[in-house]
User: Fold 3-hydroxyisobutyryl-CoA hydrolase from Alicycliphilus denitrificans.
Amino acid sequence: MTEMATEVVAEVRGRVGCITLNRPKALNALSLGMVRDLMATLLAWQHDDKVLAVAIRGNGREGPFGAFCAGGDIRFLHAAGSVGNPQLEDFFTEEYALNHLIHNYGKPYIAFMDGIVMGGGMGISQGGSLRIVTERTKMAMPETAIGLFPDVGGGYFLSRCPGRVGEWLALTGDTIGAADAIAFGLADGFLPADQQAAVWEGLGTQAFADGAAAQQWVASKFVAAGACQISARTQIDQYFALDGVSAIVAALERANDDWARATAATLRKRSPLMLHVVLEQIRRARAMGLADDLRMERDMVRHCFYLRPGESETLEGIRALAVDKDQNPAWRPARIEDVSPELVQAFFKSPWPAHAHPLAALR
Assistant:
């Protein structure tokens, strides 16, 4: 196989393990093969004394950088979920185990989060020890638009954003840029996009005493990210602290300002069922460690596909967005006000006894 055909290009340059996601036409959306390649690479380097640190980037359509990772391969999820392909189960189990490994890696893991960083792209970057954003970064967890929830540890890292930012990002799926990502604790520093290549090259050619020195050298290149774009922090904390989704939307719809009206309109387009599930997820996850959150999310994603045979919100959401592209999902229930608490709670009942859970080994 040629290097260009490889979806994950991994090489040790100097004392740094360098990973390039190489599926540019799909904005580096993660396939099961990519998840497995990343896991194998990181496990091989974890205890290799020759590798002091790891750096990861995405290939864009014009070459390195420009697109980090748009998430999981939702077309694969739709195809596998529609026919009961067991690789669907493998994908989520192995992806979440990969997310856990990155958070607990033990060596610096430096993520160049340029361009699109969404869904699964957040999963392979949020656990990093240094998360770099640029003026091109577009960050989001947009899963409620496809009848899913912010998984890959989203409950864990979104719930730890300041105030009620986690609820807002999880429910709306709104996109943020570099300065907001840093302010919300979802990135560590800003690097102008045109300086990334030089820093990447330097990681492979500089002599570093240890991994910490490599990370400190990259951090020394950071510059100010500029002003935050989100001016609605007070409103976010006010509305998204309310008791439930119905209360949040009702209050937004009563408000007399453009931000509140636009936010309510966004929420009305999302899966009503998954909005309720996601609010519960974020609030439960605030009190959880990462391993417990990932186990909870593994339960939830199983239910997204199999709790209601023939009525999967996720399959319907992906169909409307990416398969038929009619942008007109038939959500069930159709209204936020019609979702029963019993249906929401069913997503949090594990289909496995604790000892047999696919992620039982995570600590």
About this structure: The beta strands are 8-13, 16-21, 53-60, 63-64, 109-113, 116-118, 130-133, 138-140, 189-190.
